[in-house]
Amino acid sequence: MWLYLGISFVLELVMFIFQIVFGSSAGFGFLYNIYFLFCPLFFMIYFNRKQNQLIVKLNTIVFAVFMLIFLFFIFKEYQEVNQIIGISFSLVYILYSLIWFYGKLNYPNEKSIMDDPKFWVSCGLLFWGVFYFKNYSKVSI
What we know:
Distance between the termini: 33 Å
Mean pLDDT: 83
Radius of gyration: 16 Å
Structural class: mainly alpha
Helix content: over 70%
Shape: globular
């Protein structure tokens, strides 16, 4: 989890510096596109650890569909953040968290759900996924 937080912080810091130095960070959207590749891959690996095969397959399918969408739309304008990629990125967050909740409910263990760090990560991803989706879907495509 430290890797994800560290990369997110560095990206935001770099974009803030670009905003100050260049007056705009519009030409550096490719950094966010790389970030949009990193996050789903990271969370797929994170949520697939110590899971049953069904959950691993569902997460992998979600990631594969996202990659197809990403590869199809990234070539339109790689220097800017594409809205379709942003919406699909949001849906990946939402689906990963819902798949984890599904797996936790269908395959419970003796450990309390509140003591599982993945519960809190899933809640956060669900929150941010809905927030991102709401913001991306306001913009006309």
